Description:
Layout: H1 11-16, E1 21-26, E2 29-33, E3 39-47, E4 50-58, H2 64-83
Antiparallel strand pairs: 1-2, 2-3, 3-4
Amino acid sequence: MAGRQLHCLSALRLAKEVVPGHYADGGGLYMQIADSGARSWVFRFRLDGRVREMGLGPLSRVSLGEARKLATGYRDMVRDLTNG
């Protein structure tokens, strides 16, 4: 069985998107564009049956590669919490 695709976003797509919303990179990592146009990274996960979001920082300070590394670490931590 194939897993979900990771790394769907590219630097070019990050620059092109302007409509407010969430844009998935995979594995719970999203680029969020606020109504004000501010762009940031969020990690979405499910814990105790509830969907939660954790901010990872603005795009101006956190690169796509850094956001992916952070999301991987948090994804592992959530998996340990839910399997423990």
